[in-house]
Amino acid sequence: MVSAQATVIPGLSRRPDPRMIRALAGLRHWSNREDLDVIVTNSATASALVRLAGTRVPVVYFCHGLHWNETRSIGDRVWPVIERMLLSRTAGVISLNSDDQRWFAQHLDGGRHLHLSAGVGLNLADYPIRELPNGPLRLCWIGEFSTRKRPLLALDTAAELQRRGIDFHLEMLGEGTLRTQIRAEISDRGLSGIVSADGPGDAAATLARSHALVHTAQWEGLPRVMLESLAIGRGSYAFDVKGVRDIPLSQLTTDGDAPELAARIGADWDSGRLREPLVFDRVVLDYSHAATGIRQFLPKFIGVASTTPAVQEDPHVE
């Protein structure tokens, strides 16, 4: 089915599903019909399917974040094996964080690898520098209420700030399966009126009325919300994990240690550091840098034979 802007390929999804096997033939048919020069793919499941499909077109994996952190869990050990197998079917790679950059450098020659240290960048006009708010400490947490984003650690941090006697408010913005639990926890922990989690909203406006962003994810590709915070002139407090540690000027603490994170925030509030303007050359965050890099990177693969073994095309695709 073809719309005005996109082709819907049955079985192609971000999440693993037994029905995704149907996408392999659909991807080959789509690639041949559109007479493509290069296929750029990003999400983990979709990128694996494209590289397994056996198209005649070179595939560039725009990796928004390899799906493992410190390779401590069984899952974290399986993913690198799968990705190494898929690299034999990958013409080129675009990476966003230093951990992924190092991993690809070990398994791929440099000419096939582009690294974007500021990610895809921002339209800076959407994130103008804002003056810091007056009054008590205002913090925000912005993201999906999910297991990987660990919003409960934001509540742990808030509880520790409350224990320390700091006058503050934490605004949690976003949606997800854990939001109902978070709202219940706010009440149960006596944080009502101090912490709010009212759902999705305007991230730029929320950052503008805050002194800093709190980020608690287990790992990231490159957290865009932390770049948005930086562009507006707000610092971030987070754990030292993959992707997050690449954000300039972020204040990092031991992974999962909410009391330590609260202590860092409290110390910077008491010292006046959080009331001072953030000094950073935000021009490096502009999307034009990424656009130029990608525009120069992709043409080198045009006319290059696909690294994926071609598969006989099935003339009939449902």
TrEMBL record:
Protein species of origin: Brevibacterium antiquum
InterPro entries: Glyco_trans_1 (IPR001296), Glyco_trans_4-like_N (IPR028098)
Residue stretches making up the Glycosyltransferase subfamily 4-like N-terminal domain: 12-106
Name this polypeptide is given: Glycosyltransferase involved in cell wall bisynthesis
GO MF term (any one): glycosyltransferase activity
Nucleus keyword on record: no
UniProt lineage: Bacteria, Bacillati, Actinomycetota, Actinomycetes, Micrococcales
Key words of the record: Glycosyltransferase, Transferase
Domain Glycosyl transferase family: 132-247
